[in-house]
Amino acid sequence: QQQVKQSPQSLIVQKGGISIINCAYENTAFDYFPWYQQFPGKGPALLIAIRPDVSEKKEGRFTISFNKSAKQFSLHIMDSQPGDSATYFCAASTGPGTASKLTFGTGTRLQVTL
Amino acid sequence: DAGVTQSPTHLIKTRGQQVTLRCSPKSGHDTVSWYQQALGQGPQFIFQYYEEEERQRGNFPDRFSGHQFPNYSSELNVNALLLGDSALYLCASSRVGYEQYFGPGTRLTVT
């Protein structure tokens, strides 16, 4: 049972453009939603995270938009750069405490072209 | 400040064998989680250790077991290896209630 659905599977964006990756979840108990960036041969690196008490969070060129009623959240990468080319994973968990296992989406492979 | 470290980097085993993977958490972290990432997929939660006890477990068989030591480092053991166990095994560490940080992973190939 896939609890976090991610789309698209792959994405090609021109340098300077906006990359948008979407995720939808089913479990209403989720209350922590991080995004991870993974380069080939490396482990996932935490990029940005949000809790459902806010609808948007921005850190530099990266923004998370969160829609609690629709059970959807998305990552926007502004002014996309070739160095952003990586696989991005959304994830969700039931929040703080020791029971904080992450449920991941299937990933989006982003390619930023010149 | 060293991040999460894992050893070995790569490992090749034969079906039926047993394997042990090791993880040292980031300084100040006391919780270790293990994930399995098959090629082209997102990481899947195996289990989590805190205070040397398994606190939560994902949908993995008993062939997967673990341990956490007093210094918070951890081991993942897999018995009776199957071809389907070939994957990148990731360790993530955190402090209770805070973000998880991943290590580089151990690439396990079962032949």
How would you describe what is shown here?
The complex is a heterodimer of chains A (114) and B (111). Chain A has one domain (4-113): Immunoglobulin-like. Chain A contains no helices and eleven strands. Chain A has strands spanning 4-7, 10-14, 19-25, 33-38, 45-50, 56-59, 62-67, 72-77, 86-92, 103-104, 108-113. In chain A, strands 2, 4, 5, 9, 10 and 11 form a six-stranded mixed sheet that branches. A five-stranded antiparallel sheet of chain A has the order 1-3-8-7-6, with no helix packed on it. In chain B, the strands form two sheets. In chain B, strands 2, 4, 5, 6, 9, 10 and 11 form a seven-stranded mixed sheet that branches. By secondary structure, chain B is an all-beta fold. Chain B has no helices and eleven strands. Chain B has a single domain, classed as Sandwich (Immunoglobulin-like), CATH 2.60.40.
Main sheet of chain A, how many strands, which sense, barrel? Answer: 6 strands, mixed
Strand content of chain B: over 45%
By secondary-structure content and strand pairing, the structural class of chain B works out as mainly beta
Give the CATH topology of chain B: Immunoglobulin-like
**Rg for CA atoms of chain B:** 13 Å
Q: Main sheet of chain B?
A: 7 strands, mixed
Average pLDDT level of chain A: 92
